[in-house]
Design goal:
The protein is of the alpha/beta class and 238 residues long. The protein has one domain: Rossmann fold, CATH 3.40.50. The chain has eight helices and six strands; from the N terminus they run H-H-E-H-E-H-E-H-H-H-E-E-E-H. The chain has a six-stranded mixed sheet with strand order 3-2-1-4-6-5. The chain is globular and about 50 Å long. The protein starts with a helix and ends in a 56-residue tail after the last helix. The structure holds iron/sulfur cluster. Iron/sulfur cluster (SF4) binds next to helix 7.
């Protein structure tokens, strides 16, 4: 599939129409659900009757509220969500060698690699495209040049290209929350406690109004490091 053609088809469309268009062109798509406000992708897909394949990464370190929210979403939309777990041998080796909080000392990449990146990589081999809730306004440092459609060079196979779609790319936080409130979409109760960007419990904290949402993630690391490896490849249209 030509990514430039796809880009021009999707460029001026709203998220709902982006979903409609890409599901017309591809039948092996997966939606990744982080347990946060990206729930609106599930809402839109279900209301379009798309019967989406949805997965989420259970790192084992999520907030109790997030686990409960994931179940709420399954029940609310009457869908199954594939819950991906880390490789137990790799995880055990890490915690045996470095304990449970090594990321505070030597950075989050190793732990995120085992708990998020590897399970994701394995799961995505079954798909030719995945859909994420990423938006440009989530981080000036790492998401400012996000595109609606990209080739994901980090997770593409040797002989296959993986497409990544970010239908909410150009939406603001205000638009997302207007949608959630207007359509009474379920949301993670942590948002009511000042959490904007929600990840694992030890690596997420609430932020103040007007702070960059990513400042609540891995706050002990530099701004440009605040990606967990899931979206490290900002592949450009070509
Ligand atoms: Fe580990 Fe923190 Fe990454 Fe979660 S966000 S996988 S706890 S380093």
């Amino acid at each position: 599939m030509n990514i430039q053609t796809l880009q021009s088809q999707l460029d001026n469309k709203q998220p709902r129409d982006i979903l409609k268009t890409i599901y017309t062109q591809l039948d092996d798509l997966a939606i990744s659900f982080s347990g946060a406000e990206d729930v609106i992708l599930i809402d839109m897909a279900c209301k379009l009757g798309l019967k989406p394949n949805v997965f989420t990464l259970d790192t084992g370190r999520l907030h109790p509220e997030t686990y409960q929210f994931i179940q709420t979403v399954m029940d609310h939309y009457k869908i199954k969500i594939t819950v991906l777990s880390p490789n137990q041998d790799a995880l055990q080796a890490l915690t045996h060698e470095k304990g449970l909080y090594s990321f505070y000392q030597d950075g989050h990449k190793e732990c995120c690699g085992i708990r998020k990146v590897q399970p994701l990589k394995q799961h995505l081999t079954a798909y030719s495209g995945w859909i994420t809730g990423q938006r440009r306004d989530q981080s000036k440092a790492t998401r400012d040049s996000l595109n609606i459609a990209e080739i994901d060079t980090a997770f593409s196979g040797k002989n296959t290209e993986l497409l990544k779609f970010n239908p909410l790319c150009h939406w603001t936080s205000e638009q997302v929350w207007s949608y959630i409130r207007a359509l009474e979409v379920p949301f993670n109760p942590l948002h009511n406690q000042g959490f904007i960007s929600i990840g694992c419990e030890p690596c997420t904290r609430a932020t103040l109004p007007h702070q960059d949402p990513r400042e609540g993630r891995w706050w002990w690391e530099a701004a440009e490091s605040k990606e967990c490896g899931l979206h490290s490849s900002l592949s450009k249209p070509r």
